[in-house]
Write a structure and sequence with these properties.
Layout (H helix, E strand, L loop, with lengths): L7 H7 L26 H8 L14 H14 L3 E5 L2 H12 L5 E5 L4 H13 L3 E5 L5 H6 L4 E7 L1 E2 L4 E2 L2 H11 L3 E4 L4 H4 L9 E5 L13 E5 L12 H4 L10 H4 L4 H14 L5 H11 L2 H20 L4 E5 L9 H7 L7 E6 L2 H11 L4 E2 L9 E3 L11 H6 L6 E5 L5 H12 L1
Parallel strand pairs: 2-3, 2-4, 4-7, 7-8, 12-13
Antiparallel strand pairs: 1-9, 5-6, 8-9, 10-11, 11-14, 13-14
The structure holds pyridoxal-5'-phosphate.
Length: 425
């Protein structure tokens, strides 16, 4: 072990876990229970008053999920984690903790289509407004900031376009505005990129994707970077004002550098309720053990497939930051030098109809709305994930009519290429 503690690959296997003290079970058990027996009345009171840490009810904490939370936080280099039912639930809880009615989020216009929908529609019902900014022109972020802005939200590698965000430049803008930079690190995973090292304050994940990695379990995570000052100017009342239901404690004072994760748990998760199932936490923990091996293979395969497609006569363009000519190649080399991820888009000559035809002809690749599976996946965003967006929003999000998105799996790359080749033919 180095002086700095266990390395990333060791943490991926061990962080948060130890043999079960009662049974000796080496693998973290699935604690498939709704509730936990109190030692006595005083113990119960101290748990409910946040004077002691412990388990009450699986909506709020669960021992299997606690191992997952510690592991994701360790891999990202954060102070604490919170795992919930899905990536969208993680985003909901983050904003529920930061926002009051009338507040604003400045978000990148190149995001997963579901996140654009979440912010454009459901978040409006809470009175939270989103202002869209252009990842390719960071002055648009700066110009969008107002006194009502409470956060900046981006993806490290944006889905579906293969866009790499300049996080260091954005973190300077966030610092000047006094708001946290939130990075969705789903597509890169901490194996490729650790946003806290580039100025992020909060990281969110859809664990459903590469961290779980096998297309079998939904989950989401929030990781607290531990550096943001939540007490400054009282801009974040959920953290800076006394909580009557917890003996008037001020969460931002009492819980120091993991106050944000605590607030998301004891306010948002407690009241909104999107708890992850312990079985899904178990499946995702098992997936994370092989994260490094899988991610490297995903990236190596994606590089080969992108190179093949970029020379194919029926392909008009390929947007993969791993290609030397790509506009995001320099940013990829800076932020994720081990690889550009496994998800990218390309354009088929023949537009919308050709895109729909291609996804219908593949045999090895699965036509479905997911990414980050061991299997290779394909989708035509304009007719599926992004269909609810306007034509303008589709284009801005990198989901125009000719666009096809792939998530390259860990199969033999020759077989993936052969399947795409026959489908294009
Ligand atoms: N963030 C990104 C980048 C995604 O791709 C997705 C889903 O595809 C989400 C968040 C939402 O995650 P979930 O489907 O687990 O709610």
């Amino acid at each position: 072990m180095s002086d700095n503690g266990p390395s990333f690959d060791t943490l991926a296997v061990h962080a948060g876990a130890k043999p079960d003290p009662t049974t000796g079970a080496r693998i973290t058990p699935i604690y498939q229970t709704t509730a936990f027996v109190f030692e006595d009345v005083d113990h119960a009171a101290s748990l409910f008053g946040l004077q002691a840490f412990g388990n009450i009810y699986t909506r709020i904490t669960n021992p299997t999920t606690a191992v997952l939370e510690e592991r994701v936080a360790a891999l990202e280099g954060g102070t604490a984690g919170l795992c919930v039912a899905s990536g969208h639930a993680a985003q909901l809880l983050v904003f529920h903790t930061l926002m009051q009615p009338g507040d604003e989020i400045v978000a990148a216009n190149k995001l997963y289509g579901g996140s654009i929908n979440q912010m454009n529609h459901s978040f409006k019902n809470f009175g939270w407004n989103v202002v869209w900014a252009d990842t390719d022109d960071l002055t648009t972020f700066e110009n969008a900031i107002t006194p009502k802005t409470k956060a900046i939200f981006v993806e490290s590698i944006a889905n579906p376009g293969g866009v790499v965000t300049d996080m260091e430049a954005l973190s300077k803008i966030a610092k000047r505005a006094g708001v946290p930079l939130i990075v969705d690190n789903t597509m890169a995973t901490p194996y490729l990129c650790r946003p806290f090292e580039h100025g992020a304050d909060i990281i969110v994940h859809s664990l459903t994707k590469f961290l779980g990695g096998h297309g079998n379990s939904m989950g989401g995570a929030i990781v607290d970077g531990g550096t943001f000052d939540w007490m400054r100017e009282g801009r974040y009342p959920m953290l800076s004002e006394p909580r009557p239901e917890y003996n008037n404690i001020v969460i931002g004072e009492v819980f120091g550098n993991f106050a944000f994760a605590i607030a998301c748990r004891v306010l948002g998760l407690r009241d909104l309720g999107p708890a992850i199932s312990p079985t899904n936490s178990f499946n995702i923990l098992t997936g994370i053990e092989t994260l490094s091996l899988r991610m490297q293979r995903h990236c190596d395969n994606a590089q080969k497939v992108a190179e093949f497609l970029s020379e194919h006569p029926k392909i008009s363009w390929v947007s993969y930051a791993g290609l030397p000519g790509d506009r995001y190649h320099k940013l990829q080399q800076k932020y994720m030098p081990k690889g550009a991820g496994a998800v990218f888009t390309f354009g088929v000559t023949g537009g919308y109809e050709a895109g729909v035809a291609l996804v219908g002809k593949v045999e090895l690749l699965s036509h479905l709305a997911n990414l980050g599976d061991t299997r290779s996946l394909i989708i035509h965003p304009a007719s599926t994930t992004h269909r609810q967006l306007s034509d303008e929003q589709k284009k801005a999000a990198g989901a125009g009519p000719d666009v096809v998105r792939v998530s390259i799996g860990i199969e033999d790359p020759a077989d993936i290429i052969a399947d795409l080749d026959q489908a294009l033919a």
